[in-house]
Amino acid sequence: MFRKRKKPPVEIPTSSMADISFLLLLFFLVTTTIDIDTGIDLVLPPWVENAEQVKVKSDNIANLLVNEVGDVLIDEKIIGIAQIKPEIIARIKANPKLIISYKTVRDTPYNIYIMVMDQLKVAYNELRDEYSREKFGVPAEEASDAQIQELRKEIPQRISLAEPTSAEEG
Amino acid sequence: MKFQKKIAQTQQTIPTASLPDIIFMLLIFFMVTTVLREVDILVDYTLPEAVSVEKIDNKRLLSYIWIGSDERIQIDDSIIPVDAISNIAYQKRMNNPNIIMSLRIDKGSRMGIVSDVQQELRRADALRINYSALNKL
To answer: Which among B50, B127, B135 is the nearest to A46, CB-wise?
Structure first.
């Protein structure tokens, strides 16, 4: 006769589970980068061969030229970089259809390009904020998605990037 | 008078049975947030600063182009010439139509090279770009 041998209870030792998961946790802690990318968004115009010239009324264009040392010329008037924002805000208020044609020379430092672009963006943000406070009673950061859509429609960012010229041409 | 050692009536041990669960939760959080692939940056650059920066919420849409202070251009892990950008950008856009090209450009670069890169991106129809900049308060 066979007697059934008494089996010891089957059990997987789980005491080291915490240690193992700690190790994994440490690995992911070390490899994770939580830094968030920040930057200025822009949508480029699509590429077209032999672009047909679209005529825009010259009243609706603000010519913004920046040279290699950071002098700013807006419609033949020299201003400083910090003055761009109030100037643009005043012009857009006077003419909501204004297109800003932003042109640099090939030697303009990127830093200055970004400073000017920043001024333009801040100007648009302030206009949107003002509109939002007036219409919705909340600052633009607190606007709902539908309100943001309306803001974008009402105050579109009309920035046209012209190809930089070399200093000799300009 | 005899001093008697007082022994607290409550249990002295901290229950550790739920410790693995807590650790697992943390582990899962970090696993989800980690983006493992990091490229070696071969060019030397310092980002410009700006006030009106926006946070990019979707990191997975991003693809980077670095332009260093010596005007070398890096995409992924290699240095490439300007005229190769449009092909690479086109490939990337095929794989991911909503791609955002993040331009990480040294603040001392000339606009000439920046514009050349932008023209290449337009040619590849990768139109959503983002000038990487640090937040200035």
So the answer is: B127
Q: Which residues of B106-118 are buried (b: 16+ CB within 10 A; e: fewer)?
A: bbebbbbbbbbbb
pTM for the model = 0.75
| DSSP element (H, E) containing B57 | none
Contact A110 B48 (CB under 8 A): yes
Cα separation, B25 vs A28, whole angstroms: 12
B46 touches chain A (CB under 8 A): no
The CA distance from A4 to the nearest CA of chain B, in Å, is 35
E-assigned strands of A5-151?
38-43, 61-66, 72-74, 77-79, 99-104
CA-based nearest residue in chain A for residue B46: A111
The answer to whether residue A42 neighbours chain B at the CB level (below 8 Å) is yes
Q: How many CB atoms lie within 10 A of CB B103?
A: 21
CB contact under 8 A, A38 and B53: yes
**Is B58 in CB contact (< 8 Å) with chain A?**
no
Helix B111-123 × helix B85-95 angle, to 10°: 50
Contact assignment for B55 to A32 by CB distance below 8 Å: no
Alpha carbons A164 and A162: distance in angstroms, whole number: 6
Tokens of A96: 């909501």
Beta-sheet strand order (sheet of B73-75) = B54-55, A38-43, B128-132, B100-105, B62-67, B73-75, B78-80
Phi, psi of A127 (to 5 degrees): -65, -40
pLDDT digits (tens, 9 = 90+) for B5-50: 777 777 777 777 788 888 888 888 888 877 666 678 888 888 898 8
